Amino acid sequence: xxxxxxxxxxxxxxxxxxxxxxxxxxxxxxxxxxxxxxxxxxxxxxxxxxxxxxxxxxxxxxxxxxxxxxxxxxxxxxxxxxxxxxxxxxxxxxxxxxxxxxxxxxxxxxxxxxxxxxxxxxxxxxxxxxxxxxxxxxxxxxxxxxxxxxxxxxxxxxxxxxxxxxxxxxxxxxxxxxxxxxxxxxxxxxxxxxxxxxxxxxxxxxxxxxxxxxxxxxxxxxxxxxxxxxxx
Length: 232
What we know:
By secondary structure, this protein is of the alpha+beta class. The protein has 6 helices and 9 strands, in the order ααααααβββββββββ. A 5-stranded antiparallel β-sheet has the order 6-3-2-1-9, with helices on one face. Strands 5-4-7-8 form a 4-stranded antiparallel β-sheet, with no helix packed on it. A hairpin with a 4-residue loop joins strand 2 and strand 3.
């Protein structure tokens, strides 16, 4: 993909996550996510960026007096008061000023927190469940040959079992283990001992005994699988 195409894809993913896309376009993006790993990776990146903002908002329970006050303020007897307020130009000037201020603050927050420069991965992989095709893990490989494995959903592991991470490129005689991973936890791995990454390189996570496969290759069922897609 060209840088322009990647930027357009990033913008589309951002609008999808924020929820500003029209309904028909949002449905189209949801369909594309099943077959476009790069778009799915962009959506996952935006969700990871936005989650810290959502976590900063503490839940607030409404007071017992709130609903009676709402009913009172919207009663028929207050129609004239609302009409005077609605027609008051000072109300609209104040509202416009408040909206403008909120827009500036939001732009600053989003610009600082969401558009902070981040390393651009050379390859991305979305590991999906073979059964329902739901994204489970995101793999990013950078120019420094560091691989990041990022969970996209919670996952339970059977007792006395472990998750093992594997990769295999075209031409390899057998897959190579990248080690055990913990469900729901990110992981960073150096690929210096492996050959250079290849487009379409296979990655998968299998269910293995607690200490991993005893024979050096996958023995258990495949829980998540995907292939590498270059981003440039």
